[in-house]
Amino acid sequence: MSTKDYQDLNNVVLLNSFEIDKKRYRVFYNNDTLIWEKEKSNKSKISIPIHDVISVNYPKRKNSSTTPSPQHPAFNSSPSINSVEIQNNSSNNVEDFRCFTINYAKRCIDPKVQDVGSGSSKKSCHNINNWRIHSITLHNNDKYIIKEWHDTLSKILNSLKRPRKLLLFINPYGGKKNALQLYEKYAKPIFQMANVDVSVIISQRPNQIFDLVMQQHLDQYDGIACSGGDGTFSELFNGLIYRKMINEHSSSLENNEQLNIDFDNIQTPDIPCGIIPAGSTDTIAYCMHGTTDVKTCIIHIVLGQTTGLDISSISTERGLIKFYASVVAYGYLGDIAFENDDYRFLGPRRYEYVGFKKVVMNRGYDVELMLLQEPESNSPQGNENSNVCDNEQETKCYENCSICSKPKTYNNNNTPEIKRDGESEEKYKRITGKFFMVNSANISCACERSPSGFSPYCHLGDGYIHLVLVRHGSLFQNIKLLLKLASKKGQISEYPFVELYKTKKFYFKALNSNSEGSLTDSTQPISVGPSRYTSVWNCDGEVVQDTDVVVRSHRQLLTVYRRGAINEEAVESSRGCCCC
Questions:
Q1: Inter-residue contact 67 to 89 (CB < 8 Å)
Q2: Can you list the positions of beta strands (E) in 297-416?
Q3: Are 36 and 65 a contacting pair, CB within 8 Å?
Q4: Cβ count within 10 A of residue 149
């Protein structure tokens, strides 16, 4: 579409009267906003941004193809308004139509409010971050008005940057093993409504998604997604990033040269990706959207709005191990990940069983960490508190986050980032001790079981890792920690045995009886699984045996389909209360 066509669409103004649910309404479109209100009252005014409109359809003949109607489980069903079934294409004779249907998505801000013609169900939507699809049918006896509205809105929707051809991987073995059923019940009808051409690949083995992403021709797709848990999503974005790195160094690989990774200049993959949660905890989806609601995550994919997501890497002296999106954890969570596979027959319950077992064992591990400090322009050299997170001054990551929206060339203090030519200019903070758990959080790691997560103030796109260090102590201390993680109130950093740091890079070394000294004068031997002295790393649910590692944050390395969560407390307070 030419620039002139875009300008013409931006200047479009539509105003006509329609019948909606047997009542007369004024319907108005301008400045990317669709508004309808009763002709004799302004109290029923509804305003929808065009970016939240999914599709515009003519009604279909009763004997036409089986496209899902609003009575499908993916929609809010109501028999009163949408007796007209929806047609996804406009191949029928326009002369016969005296109505058209607008399908749009909306947050469940107030579950008690019923939209006119929206087909809202009587069931309340408890999470305000959940989205639902609504539909409204507009009637007018003038067929030319119907055609003008339908064609104009369709052109505007087609001009938006949305996935038209999507590659979707489905892992039928993860979590509750219901990814295929979720696709058929929810994803397929929504993709059909949005006119998204979906190519589905069902994975049959671990790391198959990674291999396929590396091998597939992706030029024909403008979006890629997966249905599964955090491990499935990890396979997907690791494949995308590795693919990008190999393409960037194709000339070196053709000459049989080793792939040398410049960790400061890893390029962002060209294709955005999304996730349809079907795992056990679905931490990544929860942090991205504020919910693990399947319909919500699908809606964000079809609406096509994207943001950058931080991805961190874990590596050794030998090279890169992998990238992760949620957390890499040593100690308690590492021990759980290592033993989990032995209890897969328990399903998601295995996490509770193995977790309780490891809490009772209460192992502690001697470690040493070296945290990269901020440049001198941001924190004085030698300042011991330069990496400490002050939660009183921190803000949580919500939709349109001002911190994550800063350009990549600026840090959180609005000052330009200093480019460093060598490690000699980098200043490090040394931390040693015996720890029950060491977590390097790339996101808050919140989920339905832990609403606040390890670090509630960890942002999704600011380029920082939050290190959560839990000192080894008593069994009672560990129980207090886990109860606080499961609570909606407070956070674990309130406890004196929990330390929270923020950094862009850190070195880690496990200290044990077989290896003494510091990071600078010895190399930790690789052990097979946890021992009395060493643990393993839990990297997005996968086990990493290497103990001595380097972890780096790569700001907004991945482009994902998401709108972002909203502040539930602010919404609740804005509603106010009535004591009448």
A1: no
A2: 306-316, 319-324, 327-331, 365-372
A3: no
A4: 20
Residue 335: which H helix or E strand, with range?
A: helix 332-340
What's the pLDDT score for residue 339?
A: 85
pLDDT in tens, 340-369: 777 777 766 777 788 888 888 999 999 999
Q: What are 528-532's contacts with CB under 8 Å, separation 24+?
A: 529/338, 530/334, 530/335, 530/338, 530/363, 532/363
**pLDDT given for residue 93 in this prediction:** 52
Structure tokens at 155: 């052109």
Residue pair 66/78 in contact (Cβ under 8 Å)? The answer is no
Q: Residue type for 515, please?
A: S
DSSP letter for each residue of 180-207:
HHHIIIIIHHHHHHTT-EEEEEE--STT
- Binning pLDDT at 50, 70 and 90, where does residue 528 land? low
The pLDDT of residue 253: 54
Average pLDDT on 306-331 reads 94
Helices H / strands E in the chain, number of each:
13, 22
List beta partners, residue 115: none
> Mean pLDDT across the stretch 264-269?
92
Average pLDDT of the chain?
A: 82
DSSP 485-533: HT-SSS-GGGSTTEEEEEESEEEEEE-BTTB-S-TTT--PPPPSS--SS
CA angle 395, 324, 170 (to 5 degrees): 110
Which value, in Å, is the radius of gyration of the alpha carbons in the chain?
A: 26
Ordered domains of the chain (ranges, CATH)? 3-159 (2.30.29.30), 163-305+562-580 (3.40.50.10330), 310-409+426-559 (2.60.200.40)
Token representation of residue 4: 């002139």
Q: Spell out the long-range contacts of 522-527 with Cβ–Cβ below 8 A and sequence spacing 24 or more.
A: 523/317, 523/548, 524/548
Nearest to 53 by CA among 167, 160, 166: 160
Hunting for tokens 């848990």 — which residue is that?
229
